[in-house]
Amino acid sequence: MDVPQLIRELQQGNQAAFRTLVETYQSRVYNTVLAIVQHPDDAEDVAQEVFVQVFESIGRFGGDQKLTAWIYRIATTKALEAYRKRHARKRLGATPFSFLARLFGTDEADGPDDRLHPADFEHPGVKLEQQERARILFGAISRLPEQQKVAFTLHHVEGLSYQEITEVMQTSLSSVESLLHRAKQNLRKRLAWYYKDEQ
Amino acid sequence: MESNERINSEIDKTLRSLDGLERASPRPFFHTRVQARLEGRRSATAAKNWTFRPAWVVASLGLVFALNVSAVLMYQHQASTYEQQQTTETVADEWGIDPLSLDW
């Protein structure tokens, strides 16, 4: 079944077409979401929500959009929402003064805070000999600003090209290049902290 | 100097640690769980729609209105009974009659 036909059948509420869609995209969606939320149960929940939203809003899908890019966009948006929610819960539960710390900006961006971003996530698709390094890298990725995190995840975890990322993020090629460049710089900075601390 | 080189080498290796990563997949029967979630969502929406049907809204508002009217009427009835009783007691006082003795 080609994509335009799949879309037409989905818009008619065809259950078999929906099954085809889920089975075609489930790994891409789950893998993307997992890399962002870094928690298998949350990733499962968010991935299900992504397909529910796809089913419910496929009627409004159209124009020049590409189905794959549209699904990736829903997945990254929902994953970031879930990550934010989980992060906010941890933040609120962290210390009685964490709200004040947040207000006065003493908490984010400038220093590693392992209480809020524990580097304990192990991606199941990483090669065995790389697991320890990947665990450290995912800890650093979780601290990236959202847009950089999405661009880096789509490129390095999902293997999307720069052009495909522009379609998902609805931005220009130069913006994607800039996001990925800044993401790498930030990761280098954080990894440098980590390895200096380790010495 | 040597330490910086070592750190840079560690960073480069760590940044390359996702090379050759295989996609993670959800647990088996993912589609069944999505379908179940959709069904749950649909029945919740149907229940919500049923509650907000115009006939039910009108009937509920009518019931609330009727309860309010009956409450006002009951209050008025109680107030007039109390007023009547007060008047009887005042007249009895003025004429020096014990209201209990009239109660035969």
UniProtKB/TrEMBL annotation, chain A:
SUPFAM superfamilies with a match to the protein in the record: Sigma2 domain of RNA polymerase sigma factors (SSF88946), Sigma3 and sigma4 domains of RNA polymerase sigma factors (SSF88659)
Domain RNA polymerase sigma-70 region: 21-87
Record keywords: DNA-binding, Sigma factor, Transcription, Transcription regulation
Annotated ranges, domain RNA polymerase sigma factor 70 region 4 type: 139-187
GO MF term set: DNA binding; sigma factor activity
Gene3D superfamilies: 1.10.1740.10, Winged helix-like DNA-binding domain superfamily/Winged helix DNA-binding domain (1.10.10.10)
Record protein name field: RNA polymerase sigma factor
GO biological process: DNA-templated transcription initiation
Family to which the UniProt record says this protein belongs: Belongs to the sigma-70 factor family. ECF subfamily.
TrEMBL record, chain B:
Taxonomic superkingdom: Bacteria
Transmembrane portions of the chain: 55-75
Keywords recorded for this protein, A-Z: Membrane, Transmembrane, Transmembrane helix
Name recorded for this polypeptide: Uncharacterized protein
Organism per entry: Fibrisoma montanum
